[in-house]
Amino acid sequence: MPRNRIAAIDIGTNSIHMIIVEERGASYRVIDKEKEMVQLGRGSLEGRPLTDDAIERGVEALRKMAAIAERWQVKEVVAVATSAIREAPNRRRFIAAAQKAAGIRIRVVSGEEEADYIYRAVRAALDFHGGTALVIDIGGGSLELIAGTADEVYLTASEPLGALRMAQMFELDRASSPAAVDACRSWARKRLKKTLSRISAIGFDFAVGTSGTIMTLGTIASADTTASGLRWLSRKRLGELIGELAPLSVDARTQRFAIDAKRAETILAGAIVLHEVMRKLEMDQIRSCDAALREGIVEYVLDATRDAPRPQQRGSVRRSSVLALADRSGVDRAHAAHVARLALRIFDQTEELHRFQTGERELLEYAALLHEVGMHVSYQSHHKHSYYLISHAGLRGFTADQVAVMANVARYHRKSTPDAADDNFAQLSSSQQEIVRRLVAIFRVADALDRSRSRAVRDVHIDATDHQLQFRLRLRSSADVEVAAAEKRGRYLGKVFDRNVDFETSTG
Question: Which of 93, 135, 204, 210 could form a disulfide with 146 if both were Cys (CB 3.0 to 4.6 A apart)?
C-alpha cells in the first residue's frame, strides 16, 4: 500500500500546475509534476466571463491531471483557483464542469489566502536566517506581496497586476512601443504606491521572487545561479531586458530567449511590474525560488497533521484584533487553532453544499479562535459569555454584521442549536441566519473532534454524495471520545445539509 499521497493543483490565470507528493513523516517528497498553460484569463478578467474556449481548455487540463493523480493512487486532491476564476461571473459553470468531467472539487481563494499559501511554500523552502523577507509573486491575474519572518507575517497584499492582465490591458503581448511600456509602468506605479509605502516602513532584509514569470526572467536574463539552485536577478539587468523584449514580436521573443510562446506573450508585462517594485523599494537584486502556491497547498494540508504553528499575520487588522481578544481571555490557543484547522478542512470539502466564499470562511476561522473567550468568566455558560464578549469587544476591521455572525457561531458551538426564539439569533437577517446555521453545523463537528483536547484527530477527509457525508478521520491516537461526540454533533450537520453523516477512522 503506498504512503499517503497528496495532489495539489493551482488553477491560475495563466497556467494550471499540479504537484503530487508522498508524505514522509513531517516532510514529503515530490513524485510527479504537471503543468498546462491554458490561459483561463485570456479574453476575460476585469469582471468579464470566462470564454467557452477557456473553460474547455481548463477542464481538459484538469481531466488529464485527475487521470495522473489516479494512476499514482493519490489519497487526496486539493485544488484552489485564483484571480481568473475569482473574478469571473460564470465561475460556478467552470467549477461544476470540472467536478463533472474530472471529479475535482475546486475552492476559490481570496488574494490574501493566495499570499498565505505562497508564503508557506517559501518559508518551508528557504532558511530566513532570522531575517525579514519580502516575497513577490507575479501570477497571471494578480501580484502578491508578503513581508515577514519565518514566524510572523507582517503584511500581505494582492494587487490586480498579473502578467496576463497587464499584457492584455496595454497590448504588451506583441511588439510594443515605448508609450505602451510607459503606460504600463505608470499604471503599476499608481496601484502600488500605498502598498510599497507600507513595505518600506516595515523594512526587509532580502527579497524572494516566485512564480513562472520571475523564474523565467531569471533564466533569460542569464542570472547567476547558486549551488542550491537559487537565481539572482539584478534590477539593472531587468531594466535592460525590458528594452530588449519590448520591440520584439512574440515569435521573435520565443526564438531569441527560448521560451514558450504563451510565456512570451506575458513576460514583458511581468518584467515591467517587477522592475517597478524593485525601483520603488530600491532593491538592487532579487533571488528566485521555485516553491510556489502549489507547494503552499501541500504545506497547509500537512500542517493539519504536524501541528505546525501558522505564522501570525501582524499586518492584518482583523487577525490582530481577534488574537488580542483571545490572549486577553486566556484562550487555550492550541485547542482553538486545532479546531480552527479542522473546521476549515470541513468547510473546504463541503463547498458544493454551503456555497460560501472566502468571506464566510474567514469568519468561521475567527469564530473558532474565539469560541472559548467566555471560559474565564464561567465554564457553565461559556458559550453565552463568548457571544457577549465577541459582540462587545470592539473587534477592529469587521462590520457589525460580521461580528454578529462570529458571535452567534460561538454562542451555538455547544448545547443548543440556532433557534429563532433566541433574541440574539432573531435579530439577524434571514440571510445571516442561514450563514450562521451552516457555519455552526460545520463548527460543532470540528469542535467535537478535539473533545479531549489531545489533538487525537490529525486530519479529516470527506466523501460527499447526494445522500451522505462520509467523514474519514486520520488519528494519531485513540479517539473514541471524539468520534462519539462528533456522531452526536453530526446530527445537526446532517439536518442542515440534508445528508446522512457517518464517521470512520484510520491511524497514521
Answer: 135
pLDDT tens-digit series, residues 377-425: 877 678 888 999 999 998 887 888 899 999 999 999 988 999 989 999 9
Cell 489516479 appears where? 70
d(CA 492, CA 501): 9
Round to whole Å and give the CA distance between 83 and 96.
18
| Measured CA distances, 347 to 245, 420, 439 (Å) | 45, 24, 8
Amino acid identity of residue 288, one-letter, is S
**The three cell numbers locating residue 117:** 499559501
Sign of the C-alpha dihedral computed for residues 373, 377, 378 and 383 taken in this order? negative
Instruction: Please tell me what DSSP assigns to residue 76.
Output: E
Query: Contact 86/113 with Cβ under 8 angstroms?
Result: no
Domains in the chain, CATH or no CATH each: 1-108 (3.30.420.40), 112-292 (3.30.420.150), 316-507 (1.10.3210.10)
Closest to 425 (Cα-Cα) out of 409, 442, 446: 409
In the chain, helix, strand, coil percent, each to 5?
50, 20, 30
Helices vs strands, H then E, count in the chain: 20, 16
> What global pTM score does this model have?
0.68
d(CA 224, CA 499): 57
